[in-house]
Every structure is written in C-alpha cells, then in structure tokens.
C-alpha cells in the first residue's frame, strides 16, 4: 500500500511525524507537506506564483519527504501529478492539533488536503486531535486510530470515493474503542 501523508501545520510538525511513525509499517509512506504552518488555508491552491519543492531529510527511515512552498492542496496536486510516478492507495492529512468539525472544515487546511486527495480518487482521511488549554496535544490516540483505519482499508479497499474527517478526543489511546 502506498500512503501519501500531508498536513497544514508544516513538514516539521509533531503531529505529522506521529502519524508517519504510526503508518510506516503498514505501507510505503511518502510525505509532501507545506514548508511552514498554513493553518486555515482551506482548499486554497497557488495559481499565480512559482511553487518550489525541496527534499527534506526524514527522521523516519525509509520515508521520502518533500516540503512545498505552498498549500496542502498544492502538496497533493504536486504529489499526485508530478513528484511520484506510482499512484497512491491512501492519503492521510494531519494530525491536526485541535478539532476540525462543523463549518470549521471549510477553513481547515488539514481537511483541504484530504479533500484534494478525494478529488484525485484516493481514499482520504483528515485526522485531528482535540486538546484543552490545560494539556499539551496528545497525538497517540489519533495516530493509532489512523493506523487502524489504514490497516482496515488495506485489508478491504474502498470500492469508491472515500473521504473521512476524524476527530479524536483528548484522552489516552487505551480509552478509544476500535
């Protein structure tokens, strides 16, 4: 299974790397993410400027990483159109620190990246971890849930377009039933 991972928080965000570590043994993971935090850009695409791409050293063995001077949508468009020759079987966008629910999804770059995957007929998941001001973001439950969903999709591939927006509560991973 070939998995594309993106986000809107930037290529160096801890949520992205928690996600990559959780997915790495399920398939061949590639990361194409913005070079900086672009939270709130929704489905924006760069149309009238040059979009630069740079290789980045990966903290996870075997994962190819590229940073893009552009939006999450730009990242998915480039990854699926010119950066890789083989198609992706799954796209996962996140892990976003904070919920993306209701009308918030319209401005969410995390959701925007997943939506772009959906537009390219790739089963896509946007995943977010809710947190409170009293605690740091706990990415573990979201990472394990993304892993379980990816594993399920690898065992029983989607028969049509699929777009999931998943929000995990601020709890320890053992409190999530699968």
| Unreliable stretches | none
Radius of gyration: 15 Å
Q: Give the terminus-to-terminus CA distance.
A: 22 Å
Number of helices: 4
What characteristic shape results from the CA principal axes?
globular
The succession of helices and strands, N to C, reads EHEEEHEHEHE
Task: Please give the number of β-strands.
Answer: 7
Describe this structure in words.
With 178 residues, the chain is α/β, with parallel strands linked by helices. A seven-stranded mixed beta sheet has the order 3-4-2-1-5-6-7. Helix 1 runs parallel beside helix 4 and helix 2 packs parallel to helix 3. The longest helix is centred in the C-terminal third of the chain and has 16 residues. It is globular and about 45 Å long.
Which key features would you list for this structure?
7 strands; seven-stranded mixed beta sheet; 4 helices; alpha/beta; 178 residues
Element layout with pairings:
Elements: E1 2-6, H1 14-23, E2 28-34, E3 53-55, E4 64-68, H2 72-83, E5 90-97, H3 109-119, E6 124-129, H4 140-155, E7 163-168
Parallel strand pairs: 1-2, 1-5, 2-4, 5-6, 6-7
Antiparallel strand pairs: 3-4
Helix pairs in contact: 1-4, 2-3
């Amino acid at each position: 299974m070939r998995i594309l991972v993106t986000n809107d928080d930037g290529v160096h965000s801890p949520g992205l790397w928690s996600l990559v570590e959780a997915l790495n043994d399920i398939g061949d993971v590639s990361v194409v993410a913005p070079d900086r935090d672009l939270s709130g850009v929704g489905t924006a695409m760069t149309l009238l400027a040059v979009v630069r791409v740079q290789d980045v050293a990966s903290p996870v063995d075997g994962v190819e990483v590229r940073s893009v001077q552009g939006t999450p949508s730009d990242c998915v468009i480039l990854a699926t159109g010119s950066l890789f020759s083989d198609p992706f079987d799954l796209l996962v966008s996140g892990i976003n620190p904070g919920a993306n629910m209701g009308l918030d999804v319209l401005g969410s770059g995390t959701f925007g990246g997943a939506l772009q995957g959906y537009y390219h007929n790739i089963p896509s998941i946007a995943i977010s971890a809710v947190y409170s001001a009293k605690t740091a973001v706990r990415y573990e439950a979201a990472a394990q849930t993304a892993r379980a969903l990816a594993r399920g999709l690898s065992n029983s591939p989607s028969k049509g377009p699929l777009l999931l927006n998943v929000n995990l509560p601020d709890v320890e991973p053992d409190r999530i039933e699968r």
